[in-house]
Structure formats: structure tokens, C-alpha cells
């Protein structure tokens, strides 16, 4: 099975609850990698205990997962998705590439727990994200962002 399909098989529970699962992804990312919380000024100062109920965290978490859903459904033809994403993340948010690798591992764990992502799906998700992140990196280099 293609990597995209091996992940999409488990996408239903994610799609049904983008806000809550997105919140869990960002809350766990900020717990495990506290520096990532500083990347987005609007999240500075929110304590771990207040994150689950924070609407801004849920909204951005949902945005991240919806992007990933678009990438999965594009099945490799994701250049038009990656370009604006790389643009905004390099020039506006200034998010270094390594952060995308960190969030990948968190999404793998949360999907394992909340959507039952199996071992093959976990490998497939890492593969998809690896290609996606390499394409982001190529765009970053074109933009002259060292990321
Ligand atoms: O869109 C957005 O917002 C992004 C998404 C993605 C994911 C993965 C890869 C690439 C891209 N984001 Cu936001 C991201 C991130 C965050 O938020 C935080 C941290 C890290 C990363």
C-alpha cells in the first residue's frame, strides 16, 4: 500500500475531531519541546494546565492537521501546498526545519493513541513527512532561509 493510503486509512478519527486532536498535538509538542512554544508569540505564557481548553491552540492545531490531511490526499502532488506554507513559515513565522521533524514524531504518537495508527502506518507517516519536509527545506533554501 502507498504510504499516503497507509496513513489515510487512520485519518477518519482525526478528521472527525481536528480541534481536539490538534490541541493534543500542540500541547504535547510544547510539553516535550518547550522551546517550540516560543515560536508562536500568541502561545507564550500559556501554562500546560490551560492548554487543553485554549481556543487559539486548538485552532492552530486544527490548521496543522488540516494541512497534513491536504498533503496526504494530494498523494505526492503537493508542490502547490508546500510553496505558500514554506513562504509563510520561512519569512513570517521563521520556523526552522527541525521543528517540523519534532512535530512529526508527536503526530505519530498522538495518531497511535487516538486513531490506532499501526506500525506500518507510523512508518508510512514518517515517510510522507520526510518527503514533505525535504520539499519545505528546498523551498526554504530558494528563499534564502537557513532554517
Ligand atoms: O501550517 C502550519 O502552521 C505548520 C504545519 C506543518 C506541519 C508539519 C510540517 C510542516 C508544516 N506548522 Cu504551525 C508547523 C509547526 C507548528 O505550528 C509548531 C511547531 C512546529 C511546526
Automatic annotation (TrEMBL):
**One Pfam match, by short name?**
Globin
Gene3D superfamilies from the UniProt entry: 6.10.140.2100, 6.10.140.2110
GO (cellular component) term, any one: sarcoplasm
MF terms (GO), sorted A to Z: heme binding; metal ion binding; oxidoreductase activity; oxygen binding; oxygen carrier activity
The primary site where this protein sits is: cytoplasm
Report the catalytic activity: H2O2 + AH2 = A + 2 H2O; Fe(III)-heme b-[protein] + nitric oxide + H2O = Fe(II)-heme b-[protein] + nitrite + 2 H(+)
The coiled-coil segments of this chain are none
Subcellular location per UniProt equals:
Cytoplasm, Sarcoplasm
Domain Globin, first and last residues per copy: 1-141
Keyword list (alphabetical) reads:
Cytoplasm, Heme, Iron, Metal-binding, Muscle protein, Oxidoreductase, Oxygen transport, Transport
Described function: Monomeric heme protein which primary function is to store oxygen and facilitate its diffusion within muscle tissues. Reversibly binds oxygen through a pentacoordinated heme iron and enables its timely and efficient release as needed during periods of heightened demand. Depending on the oxidative conditions of tissues and cells, and in addition to its ability to bind oxygen, it also has a nitrite reductase activity whereby it regulates the production of bioactive nitric oxide.
What does the annotation say about its assembly with partners? Monomeric.
Protein family membership: Belongs to the globin family.
Name the chain's protein: Myoglobin
Amino acid at each position: 500500500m502507498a504510504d499516503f493510503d497507509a496513513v489515510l486509512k487512520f485519518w477518519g478519527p482525526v478528521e472527525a475531531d481536528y480541534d481536539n486532536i490538534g490541541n493534543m498535538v500542540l500541547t504535547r509538542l510544547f510539553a516535550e519541546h518547550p522551546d517550540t512554544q516560543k515560536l508562536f508569540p500568541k502561545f507564550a505564557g500559556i501554562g500546560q494546565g490551560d492548554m487543553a481548553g485554549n481556543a487559539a491552540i486548538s485552532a492552530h492545531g486544527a490548521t496543522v492537521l488540516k494541512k497534513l490531511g491536504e498533503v496526504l490526499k494530494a498523494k505526492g502532488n503537493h508542490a502547490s501546498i508546500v510553496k505558500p506554507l514554506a513562504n509563510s513559515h520561512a519569512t513570517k513565522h521563521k520556523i526552522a526545519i527541525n521543528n517540523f521533524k519534532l512535530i512529526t514524531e508527536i503526530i505519530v504518537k498522538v495518531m497511535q493513541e487516538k486513531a490506532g495508527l499501526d506500525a506500518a502506518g507510523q512508518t508510512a507517516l514518517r515517510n510522507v513527512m520526510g518527503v514533505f519536509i525535504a520539499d519545505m527545506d528546498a523551498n526554504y533554501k530558494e528563499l534564502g532561509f537557513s532554517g
